[in-house]
Amino acid sequence: MKKAILIIFTGIILGLFILIMNSGEYLKRPFGNNDDVDLMLQNLEKDIITDNWDKGINDIEELKGAWNKVLKRIQFSVERDNLMGIDLSIARLNGSIRGKNKVESLIGFEELKNYWDNLGK
What's the first-to-final CA gap in the chain, in angstroms? Predict the structure, then answer.
Protein backbone atom coordinates (compact mmCIF):
# COMPACT_ATOMS: atom_id res chain seq x y z
CA MET A 1 0.00 0.00 0.00
CA LYS A 2 2.80 2.42 0.88
CA LYS A 3 4.50 1.69 -2.41
CA ALA A 4 1.32 2.48 -4.37
CA ILE A 5 0.84 5.78 -2.51
CA LEU A 6 4.47 6.71 -3.18
CA ILE A 7 4.11 5.95 -6.90
CA ILE A 8 0.84 7.91 -7.15
CA PHE A 9 2.29 10.86 -5.24
CA THR A 10 5.40 10.88 -7.44
CA GLY A 11 3.25 10.78 -10.57
CA ILE A 12 1.14 13.70 -9.36
CA ILE A 13 4.24 15.76 -8.55
CA LEU A 14 5.82 15.01 -11.94
CA GLY A 15 2.56 15.86 -13.70
CA LEU A 16 2.37 19.16 -11.82
CA PHE A 17 5.94 20.05 -12.80
CA ILE A 18 5.28 19.20 -16.45
CA LEU A 19 2.15 21.36 -16.38
CA ILE A 20 4.08 24.31 -14.93
CA MET A 21 6.94 23.92 -17.40
CA ASN A 22 4.56 23.95 -20.39
CA SER A 23 2.26 26.77 -19.28
CA GLY A 24 4.28 29.74 -20.61
CA GLU A 25 1.97 30.44 -23.55
CA TYR A 26 -1.07 30.56 -21.25
CA LEU A 27 0.60 32.53 -18.45
CA LYS A 28 1.81 35.32 -20.72
CA ARG A 29 -1.78 36.27 -21.52
CA PRO A 30 -3.14 39.29 -19.63
CA PHE A 31 -4.95 38.56 -16.37
CA GLY A 32 -5.97 42.20 -15.84
CA ASN A 33 -5.92 45.64 -17.40
CA ASN A 34 -2.42 46.55 -16.30
CA ASP A 35 -0.51 43.51 -17.58
CA ASP A 36 -1.57 43.44 -21.25
CA VAL A 37 1.86 43.50 -22.88
CA ASP A 38 0.43 43.00 -26.39
CA LEU A 39 -1.75 46.11 -26.11
CA MET A 40 1.13 48.13 -24.70
CA LEU A 41 3.37 47.02 -27.55
CA GLN A 42 0.74 48.18 -30.06
CA ASN A 43 0.50 51.57 -28.35
CA LEU A 44 4.28 51.87 -28.29
CA GLU A 45 4.52 51.08 -32.00
CA LYS A 46 2.03 53.86 -32.78
CA ASP A 47 4.04 56.29 -30.64
CA ILE A 48 7.27 55.46 -32.46
CA ILE A 49 5.75 55.69 -35.94
CA THR A 50 4.09 59.05 -35.20
CA ASP A 51 7.17 60.44 -33.38
CA ASN A 52 5.12 60.94 -30.21
CA TRP A 53 8.15 60.62 -27.93
CA ASP A 54 6.57 61.97 -24.72
CA LYS A 55 3.76 59.42 -24.87
CA GLY A 56 6.33 56.79 -25.87
CA ILE A 57 8.29 57.42 -22.67
CA ASN A 58 5.10 56.96 -20.62
CA ASP A 59 4.16 53.84 -22.58
CA ILE A 60 7.58 52.23 -22.15
CA GLU A 61 7.30 52.76 -18.38
CA GLU A 62 3.86 51.10 -18.41
CA LEU A 63 5.33 48.28 -20.48
CA LYS A 64 8.09 47.76 -17.90
CA GLY A 65 5.49 47.45 -15.14
CA ALA A 66 3.38 45.02 -17.14
CA TRP A 67 6.43 42.96 -18.07
CA ASN A 68 7.47 42.68 -14.41
CA LYS A 69 4.03 41.30 -13.56
CA VAL A 70 4.10 38.79 -16.40
CA LEU A 71 7.70 37.87 -15.58
CA LYS A 72 6.72 36.70 -12.10
CA ARG A 73 4.10 34.37 -13.58
CA ILE A 74 6.20 32.82 -16.34
CA GLN A 75 9.68 32.68 -14.82
CA PHE A 76 9.53 28.92 -14.24
CA SER A 77 7.90 27.99 -17.54
CA VAL A 78 10.16 29.66 -20.13
CA GLU A 79 13.89 29.78 -20.74
CA ARG A 80 15.94 32.33 -18.85
CA ASP A 81 17.68 33.50 -22.05
CA ASN A 82 14.34 34.61 -23.48
CA LEU A 83 13.49 36.51 -20.31
CA MET A 84 16.86 38.26 -20.33
CA GLY A 85 16.43 39.04 -24.04
CA ILE A 86 13.15 40.80 -23.35
CA ASP A 87 14.68 42.74 -20.45
CA LEU A 88 17.57 43.89 -22.64
CA SER A 89 15.24 44.76 -25.53
CA ILE A 90 13.08 46.90 -23.24
CA ALA A 91 16.18 48.69 -21.92
CA ARG A 92 17.49 49.29 -25.45
CA LEU A 93 14.10 50.51 -26.63
CA ASN A 94 13.83 52.80 -23.61
CA GLY A 95 17.14 54.44 -24.50
CA SER A 96 16.18 54.81 -28.16
CA ILE A 97 12.88 56.45 -27.28
CA ARG A 98 14.50 58.81 -24.79
CA GLY A 99 17.04 59.71 -27.47
CA LYS A 100 14.19 60.26 -29.95
CA ASN A 101 15.87 58.03 -32.52
CA LYS A 102 13.16 56.64 -34.77
CA VAL A 103 15.31 54.09 -36.63
CA GLU A 104 16.84 52.60 -33.47
CA SER A 105 13.41 52.62 -31.80
CA LEU A 106 11.85 50.67 -34.66
CA ILE A 107 14.71 48.16 -34.63
CA GLY A 108 14.41 47.75 -30.86
CA PHE A 109 10.65 47.44 -31.10
CA GLU A 110 10.83 44.69 -33.71
CA GLU A 111 13.40 42.81 -31.63
CA LEU A 112 11.19 43.06 -28.55
CA LYS A 113 8.10 42.01 -30.51
CA ASN A 114 9.97 38.99 -31.87
CA TYR A 115 11.05 37.90 -28.38
CA TRP A 116 7.50 38.38 -27.08
CA ASP A 117 5.85 36.46 -29.94
CA ASN A 118 8.21 33.50 -29.47
CA LEU A 119 7.95 33.43 -25.68
CA GLY A 120 6.52 30.17 -24.41
CA LYS A 121 6.74 28.31 -27.72
Answer: 40
> What distance in Å separates the CA atoms of residue 110 and residue 104, rounded to the nearest whole number?
10
pLDDT tens, residue by residue, 85-113 = 999 999 999 999 999 999 999 999 999 99
Report the alpha-carbon angle 117-120-121, nearest 5: 80
> For residues 103 and 92, what is the distance between their CA atoms, to the nearest angstrom?
12
Q: Are 119 and 24 in contact (CB under 8 A)?
A: yes
Cβ atoms 44, 63 nearer than 8 A: yes
What is the chain's Cα-based Rg? 19
pLDDT band at 78 (very low <50, low <70, confident <90, very high): confident
Where does residue 101 fall: left (phi above 0), alpha (psi -120 to 50 degrees), or beta otherwise?
beta
Cα 56 from Cα 42, distance rounded (Å): 11
* Eight-class DSSP state of 75: T
